[in-house]
């Protein structure tokens, strides 16, 4: 074959190889063949997440950077792309290899560039195209082991003079690559049962994917109705685990005003789960305020509450302006005075003296409040059972004695108030010798006795 025929054959093979690469790896071929030049941009992608350690490059490190930048460990599914500038001689691929004029790594993360260039050049065999082999060799990360950047445990070690800076760049690049891959694929929405491109979907941190319209409508409805506990993944597996969305996920789906309401609802719910919560007594505020965590039990400072919204400081017992840890609450909240008044005979001189000293209206109001409180306590004691988890009282109208508190989700026995394990709450009622054995349901004696029907027998 003469030189002219060889050149024509090589041109045809080059064009064919380019078309194959463009059809298989359209994202890698970033330009047409200009003259004899070709540029390839090859992403480094792994089948699964790999451990990447960015370590200090002692050869380039200074005394300051070695102290500031420690070893950084990441879990990545991709590394920044490698850009190859290739010269294709007229006799490639039959007689001459392609020439790598330069190799550049995004963010300059890859060491040993010259060594990699030599390895790629040695992969060519006369009469065979090598561009596809190069792309595969780089794309699947096989070159990392060849360059001794990967150990036997498949951990990738990348030396760099500033590990902290490079680690952030690698993490951002991996996140961007994941977003790009997600937007290009199609996913089924388990709510509307339709398939959509990733650009119209939302992937939650649990891995489940839903179309943006469905998850947005669902979360907006939950936020509007105040059901903040349902703002999460609607997949049955995640619902069973009570998995809630985090702030980043909510911000990606709903508007800023709805995010603010969601935060407020979550804070309100979390505070109300605390039995020591006290609401601000100011009528225009009513902000829930928790008990100070750093105060010891029994200390007078435990009554102090400072509202974060209106800055009003007050006593948690009497709901009045803070009067110090030693000073007692105003007489209006003193049970001792009420008991002293009630123990005196009606119309007695002692009662009249108390009424004159503190005011008859105030005293009668205190007595009425005390009697109502005692009546409420008596009714609660006789007709309800307190949840052992949060002390909320529950009244049973019918059904079994296995209760689940709607506030703290604690399982407990309505008969004795014992906490029950969520995994097997009915073991409590099937344990021989226990006071609640076979007492899952309470039957009245008259309900069990047979009563003849009138007029049935003649």
UniProtKB/TrEMBL annotation:
User: Which enzyme class?
Assistant: transferase
Q: What is its main location?
A: membrane
Tell me the compartments it is located in. Membrane
Q: Where is the RWD domain?
A: 16-147
**Known EC number:** 2.3.2.31
Top-rank taxon: Eukaryota
Cite the RING-type domain residue spans from the record: 185-440, 189-234
Keywords assigned by UniProt, alphabetized: Membrane, Metal-binding, Repeat, Transferase, Transmembrane, Transmembrane helix, Ubl conjugation pathway, Zinc, Zinc-finger
Write out the GO MF terms. ubiquitin protein ligase activity; zinc ion binding
Please list the reactions this protein catalyses.
[E2 ubiquitin-conjugating enzyme]-S-ubiquitinyl-L-cysteine + [acceptor protein]-L-lysine = [E2 ubiquitin-conjugating enzyme]-L-cysteine + [acceptor protein]-N(6)-ubiquitinyl-L-lysine
Annotated pathway: Protein modification; protein ubiquitination
Cellular component GO terms, alphabetical? cytoplasm; organelle membrane
A single GO BP annotation from the record?
protein ubiquitination
InterPro entries from the UniProt entry:
E3_UB_ligase_RBR (IPR031127), IBR_dom (IPR002867), Rcat_RBR_RNF14 (IPR047548), RWD_dom (IPR006575), TRIAD_supradom (IPR044066), UBQ-conjugating_enzyme/RWD (IPR016135), Znf-RING_euk (IPR027370), Znf_RING (IPR001841)
What is the membrane topology listed in the Swiss-Prot or TrEMBL record?
Answer: Single-pass membrane protein
Gene3D superfamilies, sorted? 1.20.120.1750, Ubiquitin Conjugating Enzyme, Zinc/RING finger domain, C3HC4 (zinc finger)
Q: Which Pfam families match?
A: IBR (PF01485), IBR_1 (PF22191), RWD (PF05773), zf-RING_UBOX (PF13445)
Family annotation (PANTHER family) = RBR FAMILY RING FINGER AND IBR DOMAIN-CONTAINING
Q: Which family does the record assign?
A: Belongs to the RBR family. RNF14 subfamily.
| Protein name according to UniProt | RBR-type E3 ubiquitin transferase
Question: Where does this protein come from, organism-wise?
Answer: Lyophyllum shimeji (Hon-shimeji)
